[in-house]
Amino acid sequence: MDKYQPKNFEEKWYQRWEQANRFAPSGDGTPFSIAIPPPNVTGTLHMGHAFQHSLVDSLIRYRRMKGNNTLWQMGTDHAGIATQLIVTEQLAAEKIKPSDLGREKFVGKIWEWKEKSGNTISEQLRRLGASLNWETERFTLDEGLSRAVLEVFVSLYEEGLIYRGKRLVNWDPVLKTSISDLEVASDEEEGHLWHLRYPLADNPKEFVVVATTRPETMLGDTAIAVHPEDPRYKALVGKSILLPLTERTIPIISDSYVDQEFGSGCVKITPAHDFNDYDMGKRHGLEIINIFNEDASINEQAPKKYWGLDRYEAREIILKDLEDMGMIEKVEAHMLSVPRGERSGVIIEPYLSNQWFVKTKPLAEPAIKKVEEGEIEFIPKNYENTFFVWMRDIQDWCISRQQWWGHRIPAWYDNEGKVYVGRDEEEVRHNNHLKDDFFLSQDEDVLDTWFSSSLWTFSTLGWPDRTIELKTFHPTDVMVTGHDIISFWVSRMIMMALKFVEEVPFKKVYVTGMVTDANGQKQSKSKGNGLDPLDIIDGISLDDLIVKRTTNLLQPKMAERIAQNTKREFPNGIQTYGTDALRFTFYSIATRSRTIRFDMNRVEGYQHFCNKLWNAANFVFINTIEGEIGNGVSNNDVIDKWIVSELNHTIQLVDQAMDRYRFDLAAKAIYEFVWDELCDWYLELVKPILNNPEIDNQLVQTKRFTLITVLEQTLRLAHPFLPFVTEELWQKLPGKIRGEGKTIMSQPYPSLNQTLIDPSAKLDITWIKEVVTGTRNIRGEMDIPHSTPIPIIFANGSDMDKSRLYEFQSLLEYLIKPKEIQWSESTDKQPPSSTHLVGEMQLLVPLKGLINKELEIIRLDKEIERKINDKSRTAKKLGNNNFISKAPLEVVNKEREKLIEIDSALTKLKEQRLKIASL
RNA sequence: AGGAAUGUAGCUCAGUUGGUUAGAGCAUCGCCUCGACAAGGCGAGGGUCGUCGGUUCGAAUCCGACCAUUCCUACCA
C-alpha cells in the first residue's frame, strides 16, 4: 500500500459522493436539519468558517449514519454592502463610477461578478468535505427568497411593525448609506479636546467655554447646556450666546445629562450630529440644523465660506478662524472612542435622513420568552446572557440602505410623497384604486442584508409556501455560529421565525469560540494574519503566502510588516496537511473556551494521527489479505475481548461527547483508542499469533476476523471526523466485511453493545501492560537496547500472577524480548537485580553484565523517594481524626489500603537498595 | 462605567457532581532501524493549578477580594 497521501484521494471521494447524491436527505428516520449560516456569495472561506463548518459536518455525518433523515441546507448571502463595495472598487480600476452605469447596469455587473466568483466558496466547502445538500442550494436574492422578503415586509408594514421616519442614523459618508448600530465598531483613538469661547449675547465681552472633540459641528449648534445644579452656570440658564462664525443666537439650557466634571462643565448641543444631543434637542424643542451633505461635506446651512468643504478640511479652517478671533481657550490631548464603519473603515456620522425601521420590541418579547423557557438552548449556556442583554434593550432596527444591490424596498411614492406598500406596483395600484397613469415611483433603497438572512431557516425551505420540506425540517435542530453574530442574526432569526412560522428556528444554538492566530490576535485581512484553510490543506510556499497576504490591502503601508511577520511565523511556508488533519485539529480545539489559538503544530500532530491510522490499516490488510478471515464464531481470547471492550467503551465516549457538543472529547476518545490501545497494544499483542505458523489455524482466523472487524468499526466511528481517510481505507476492506454498502458515509454508525464491555479482560491486559512497561522502564533507564535479550525473574507473585504468566508467557516473550523468564516463589537467593514492582510481584533483571550498580541505585532512590512522599501524604490524612470520622468510609478505607501497599513496596525497594549497595 | 469570560508544564489545551501521585499533544533530553508506521518505537525530565483569604476532614474544582488578559454593551461633549 502507498504511503498516506491525502491529496491522492480526498477530492476524488467528494466528487463521488456528490455525484451519487449522498448528501440529500433520505430514509424515514427522525429528521435532523441544520441551516448553514449563509456565507457571502463573493467571499472566501476563512478559518472561522472552516472551523464551524467542520463541526457541523461531523454532526451531520454522525446523524446521517445514525439513520436520521438528514439535511444540511446550503445557501449563500448577497452581502449587500460588501459585495457592492468589491464591484465598485473593480470598476474604479477601469475608471468607471457606478453612477456612470446607472442602477440597472451596475446591478448587472454585480450579477456577472457573482456568477464568476460565486462558486469560490462552494468549492472551498467541498474541499472541506462539507456534506451539504447542493441540490436545494439557495441564494438570498433568488426568486423564492425574494418572495419571502416581500411577504414579510408587506405583512409587517400592514401590522405597523415597519415604518418610515426621519431619524438620526449611523451614516457612512463614503458608502453614502445608513448602516445599523451593529455595523459600527468604536475604538479608542487619540484626538483633541478643544475649549471654545462662546460670547454671551447680552455681554459679548464675556464668554462661556465649551469643550468639544468635533469643533466643525459647532456650525450646527442650536444650544449650549449646563447642569441645573452647577453653581458656576446657574445664573446663565435662560440667557443666550452668540454662536461664533454664524449669525445665530442660541439659548443656554439646563439638563441633568451634562456632566459637571467633564471639560468645562458646559456642552455645545448639535442635535443633527450627535445621538445624545438629538435626544436632548427633542427634550428641549431645539432647532435641528443639519450642516452636512451625504458625503459629510459642509452644506448650505452653514456660512457660505465653508460650503463644500470636507468635514476635516472644515475643521482646520474653522479652528483657524476661531483662533484668529481669540475664541480658543485651550487645546488638550484627549482619547476618544471613534466609530468607524465595519466595511469602509471611515468615521461614521450620525446623520438625519429618511429611513425604514422595524419596530422590534413586540417581536423581541416572544423571542426572549422562548429562550427563557428553554425551548431554545444556548451552548455554552452563558451566551444566553448576551442574548438577553441585547434583546431586553433592543432598539428599532434601521433596515433601509442607500445601495443598489439587494432587495429593493417594496414601497412607492406619489407626487405628494404619499407612501404605498405592496408586493409589486400592480398590487399597490389595485389595492389603492390608482389608475395606470397615476404617477408612482419606487423607493430607491434596498433592505439590510440581515433582513433576508433573518428569514433563512424557513425561507430556504420554501416559505411562504407550506412545503413538505418546511414541515419536515423546520425547526432546524441546531445553529452553529460565532458569538459575534448572536445579535446580528441569531436573535433576528428567532424573532422572525416566531412571527411568521410560529415556531422557533432552531432548538439549540452552539456558539463556537473565535479562531485567532498563534498570538491570540483576531485574524483579519488588514492585519495580514489570516489563513486560508485551503493553504493548510494543500500547502503554500512562503512567497505565495506573502503575496496573498499583502495584495489588495486597504493600507498598503502595512505590507512590509505583514511580510516580516509572515516570514517569522512560517519560514518554510505551510506544508500539505490534507483536509482530514485540518478537520481533526478543529474538533480537538473545539473546547468551551471563547478564543481558540490556532496552532499549526497541532495540525501536524493530527496529520501524524491520520498517518498512524493509515499504517495500522495497512498492517491489518497485510495480515488478512491472504489467509481465511474467520466467520466471527467466537473462540475469542482475552485479548480480542479486551480490544472489543475498549472499542465499545470508545463508542460510548463518542456518543456522550456528541450529545454534549464536546467535539474535543469525541476526537480525544478516538485518538486515544486508535493510537494508545489499538496500535500500541492490540496490534503488538496479535503479532506473535499471526506470524506463528505453528498456531492453530482456527485461532489465527479468529484473530484476523477481530482485527478486521475492529478496524472496520473504527473507520465508521471516525468517519464524521475524518471523512476522507476513513472512506479510502474502508473501500479497501474485503466486500465480505464491508457488506453491500457503496460508501462508508451511508453505513450505520457503530453503537454501544454493553455486553461486550469486559472489565476482567481489561484487568488481564492491564497486568500485561504493567509487566511490559516495568521491564521497558528498566531497559530505558539502563539504556539496554531492545535487541539485547535480558534475563528476567518474576518473584514473589501471587497465584493470579502465576496463572497470568502461564497464560501470557509467549506473548510476554515476544514483547519483552527476554533471554528467559523464570518464576520464583520468593525473592530470597536471587542474584543482585534491577527491580520493578507490579503489585506484590517483583520483576527482577539481574545486573550481571548488563547493569551498572550506581545507575540502579539512583533509579531505586528515585522510586523510594516517590514512595516516601506518597506515604507521608497518606499517613498524614489517616493521622487526622477529623478525616477518619468525617470522610466517607470508602474514602478512608481506600487510604488505608493505599498505606499498606506503599509500606510493602517501600520495604521491598529498601531491601533491594541495601542488597545492591552491599555489592 | 457596567456585564461576561479566561488564567493549569516552555507552547496549545483537557481535567464531569470537591476524594489515589493534576493529564494529553507539541517541544526538550536519552536509547532504538525490532517486517504496519522515523509522519515511527521505548524511556525520562518538566507544574506552589494567577495571587491572597474563606468554606471543608479534604479545593485546580465551591465562595470572596485582588491582579492580569480578552470580549461585549454603553459611552463624557
UniProtKB/TrEMBL annotation:
Motif 'HIGH' region: which ranges? Answer: 39-49
Annotated localization: Cytoplasm
Domain Valyl-tRNA synthetase tRNA-binding arm stretches: 856-916
User: Per UniProt, where does ATP bind?
Assistant: 525
* Ranges where the Methionyl/Valyl/Leucyl/Isoleucyl-tRNA synthetase anticodon-binding domain occurs: 640-792
Q: Anything noted about its domains?
A: The C-terminal coiled-coil domain is crucial for aminoacylation activity. ValRS has two distinct active sites: one for aminoacylation and one for editing. The misactivated threonine is translocated from the active site to the editing site.
HAMAP family hit by this protein = Val_tRNA_synth_type1
Could you say which protein family the record assigns here?
Belongs to the class-I aminoacyl-tRNA synthetase family. ValS type 1 subfamily.
Could you identify this protein by its name? Valine--tRNA ligase
